Amino acid sequence: MLGTKRHGIAEFLTRSLFSWKPKASHSAPGWKLFGKNPLQDNPLKNSRTIQQEYESRAGPATGPPPHPQPMRCKNLEFEPLSTTALILEDRPPNLPAKSEEESQRHRQEYSEMVAGAKRREMKEAQKKKLSHPYIYLWWQGVPPSVRGKVWSLAIGNELNITPELYEIFLSRAKEKWRSFSETSSVNENEECGVSLADRESSLDLIKLDISRTFPSLYIFQKGGPYHDILHSVLGAYTCYRPDVGYVQGMSFIAAVLILNLEEADAFIAFANLLNKPCQMAFFRVDHDLMLKYFAAFEVFFEENLPRLFQHFQNNSLTPDFYLIDWIFTLYSKSLPLDVACRVWDVFCRDGEEALFRTGLGILRLYQDVLLQMDFIHSAQFLSRLPENTPAHALFSCIANTQMISNNRRWNQVFSALMKDGLKETDKSSSSNSPALRS
Amino acid sequence: MQNNRKEHLYKILVIGDLGVGKTSIIKRYVHQTYSTNYRATIGVDFALKVLNWDSETVRLQLWDIAGQERFGNMTRVYYREAMGAFIVFDVTRPTTFEAVSKWKEDLDSKLTLSNGQSIATVLLANKCDQKRDFLTNNSLKMDQYCKENGFVGWFETSARENININEAANFLVKHIIASENDILKSVVPDTISPQLNSDKEMTCSYWLSLD
C-alpha cells in the first residue's frame, strides 16, 4: 500500500518537478533517437522494435546462434523506413553480404551511436533541469509539508529497497538485539558475516548515540516518541550493510529523515543517500578519498575566498578540522535544524557539490570574524557555529559562491584530482600506503 | 613591560571510547557545567582553559576527539604536538576499559616527545558516581595497571558530580611541566640539537613572553 501511495505522488511530481529526469522505467529502450523523425510516424518500426531486433541479433554473438538462416530471410523482407539502425541491416541481395567481423563492427558502432545519443539527451535534460521554474523555487526551501516526499524522490531508490525489505532487515536487527541482550557474551552464530565484536560495538554505539542526537528536541531520547524508530532505522541499516555498519553522524542523518518521512520511507531514503559516492567515501572512512574531497573543496575555497584561504593556510587550519563534522552530519548538527533542512533541499537538487558550496557559504558568512582569529579559535568557532546562523544571510552567501574554477565545475575538478591521485599512488604505492594503514 | 609573566601553551588530547564522557569532562572543567544534552562529537572539538600556575600563565588547548574506533586513521593527525593526554573510560562499561590499552598504544606509536619519552598521560575512570563500578574499587590493581601501561596516574572522576576533574587536570599539567623541564635540561648542554622526530615540527611546547 505504501508503494502505491508513493507511486501516485511520484507521477504527479515527475510530471512537474522532475520532468528533466529520464523516465527510465517506461522508456528505457524507447528514448527518442535523432529527434527529427517522430516515432509515431513510423508505425511499422518504432525504436522499441528496433531495439528488440537488435537485442535478438546481438544475443547470438555470445551464445550459439540458433537459427541464423531464417532470421536473415525475415530481414530481407523488411524495408527500413528510416535510417535508424540501418547499419544493423544486411545489404540488399544484389550486393556482397557482410562478413561476420563487419556485422560485429556494425553492431558495435550502433551501440556507440545509441550511447552517444543517450548522453546528448541526458545533457539536454540536465540543461532543462536548470531552467525549470520549480528548480528556482526549490532554492527558497521546499515547503515542510512535501519536503520528505520531494527528498525521497530526488534521492531516488536505485537500490530498489521496498518497505517489505526494510521489515526483513528490521526483524533481523531485532533478533540480534534480543539474542545479544539474552546471552550478552560468548559464541553466537555469525549471521550477517559480522564478528560478535563488531556487532556488539555497532549495537552499543547506536544505543549510545541515539540519546545524543538532537538532544535538545527531547524526541529521540529514551522514552521520546522517535527513539524506537531511530533505533530501528539504524539497526536495520547495520544488517543491510554490515560492511559499513554504524558510523557516527548517521544518527543525525537518519533523525532528519525520520522527522520528514514515514519509517520505511525514511529507511529507503537513508540507505540510498548513504550509497551516494561522497557519503560512501565518508562513511566507509576511506581516508584517501576523503582527502580528495577536501582538496577539491580547497580549490573552490581559494577561488572564492582567497584572503581567508591564505589565512587558514598560514594557520595550518585544514578542512578536516571542520568539514568532517559538516559532511558526516550533512550540516544537521552544526546549523539550526530548519536551515539544515534548506541545505538538504539544495543538496537533493544539486548533489554533493551543494554540500561543499554550503561549507564555503558558511566560511563566507563568517569570513570577517574568522580573519581575526588564530588557529584554535577558528577551529573552535567552526566546530561550534553560532546557534542563530540566519538562513537568509547564509543562503545569499551560498548563492555568491561560484562553483567554477578555471572553467571547471566541481565534478571536473574532483575527477582531475582523482586522476592525479591514481598517478601518484602508482608512483609511490610502496612507500605511502603502509604508513597510512598503520 | 610590567606584565612579563611567562606563558605556557599546552595541547592536551582527550581520548577514549565513544560515550565515556570526554565532552562532559571538558565542559565541566572549562565551563563548570554539566548537562545530559551533549551531542555526539564528530571529528574533533576544542576547548580552551587558562590557569594561573604559580607566577606563570598556563593556557590549555583541550582537543576532544571523536571516540569511534573507525575514525582512528583520520583523527591521528590531531595528535601532533600534543604535550599531554587524558584517556577516559566509563566505569560502568567494561569494554571501554579494555579499549584503554589500545588507545594508549595508539597514542604512543604516533607521538613522542623530543627526548623519545611518551607524553604525560592520565587515566580517568569516569562516571564514578554511578555505583556500578566494576574495577576501580581495587586501587592497588589500578596503580599497577598504570605503571605497566605507562600512565603517570589515574583518577576516579565524575563530570556530573564534579569529582576529581580539577585535581586530574592539575596533576596532568604538573607532569607536563616536569617533562618539559626534563627536555630543556637535556637540550641545554648541546646548544643546538637537531630534532630527530621527523614528522613533528615542534615537539616541545611553545614558550611565549608577553610584554
What's the quick description here?
Chain B: It is found in: Endomembrane system; Membrane. The complex is a heterodimer of chains A (438) and B (211). By secondary structure, chain A is mainly α.
The first-to-last residue Cα distance of chain B is 5 Å
Structural class of chain A: mainly alpha
As a percent range, the share of strand residues of chain B is 25-35%
Q: What fraction, in percent, of the residue positions of chain A are helical?
A: 55-70%
Task: Work out the radius of gyration of chain B.
Answer: 17 Å
User: Main β-sheet of chain A: number of strands, strand sense, barrel status?
Assistant: 2 strands, antiparallel
CATH class of the domain at 282-421 in chain A: Mainly Alpha
- CA-to-CA gap between the ends of chain A? 50 Å
Cα shape of chain B: globular
Q: How many E strands of chain A?
A: 2
Percent helix of chain B, as a range, is 25-40%
CATH class of chain B: Alpha Beta
Order of helices and strands of chain B: EHEEHEHHEHEHE
Q: CATH homologous superfamily name of chain B? A: P-loop containing nucleotide triphosphate hydrolases
Mean pLDDT of chain A, nearest integer? Answer: 78
Assembly type of the shown chains? heterodimer
Q: What would the CATH topology of the domain at 282-421 in chain A be?
A: Cyclin A, domain 1
Instruction: Look at the helices and sheets of chain B and give the structural class.
Output: alpha/beta
Summed over residues and divided by their number, the pLDDT of chain B gives a mean of: 84
GO molecular function (chain A): GTPase activator activity; small GTPase binding
GO cellular component, one term (chain A): cytoplasmic vesicle
Organism (chain A): Sinocyclocheilus anshuiensis
InterPro entries (chain A): Rab-GAP-TBC_dom, Rab-GAP_TBC_sf, Rab_GAP_TBC_domain
Protein described:
- The complex is a heterodimer of chains A (438) and B (211).
- Among the domains of chain A are: 144-183 and 197-275, Orthogonal Bundle (Helicase, Ruva Protein, domain 3); 282-421, Cyclin A, domain 1.
- Chain A has helices spanning 2-16, 24-27, 47-58, 68-77, 100-131, 133-139, 144-155, 163-183, 196-210, 227-240, 250-260, 263-274, 277-283, 287-304, 306-314, 320-328, 337-350, 352-365, 367-371, 375-383, 391-399, 410-437, and strands spanning 404-405, 408-409.
- Chain A is mainly alpha-helical.
- Chain A is globular.
- Chain A has a two-stranded antiparallel sheet with strand order 1-2.
- Chain A has 22 helices and two strands.
- Chain B is 30% helix and 25% strand.
- Chain B starts with 5 loop residues before the first strand and ends with a strand.
- Chain B has one domain (7-187): P-loop containing nucleotide triphosphate hydrolases (Rossmann fold), CATH 3.40.50.300.
- Chain B contains six helices and seven strands, in the order E-H-E-E-H-E-H-H-E-H-E-H-E.
- Chain B is globular.
- With 211 residues, chain B is α/β, with parallel strands linked by helices.
- Classes of the chains: A mainly alpha (438), B alpha/beta (211).
- The A-B interface holds A 200-201, 204-205, 208-209, 212-216, 245, 247-249, 251, 285, 287, 290, 320-322, 324-325, 328-329, 333, 376-377, 379-380, 383-384, 436-438 and B 18-19, 36-40, 42-48, 61, 66, 68-71, 73-74, 77, 95, 109.
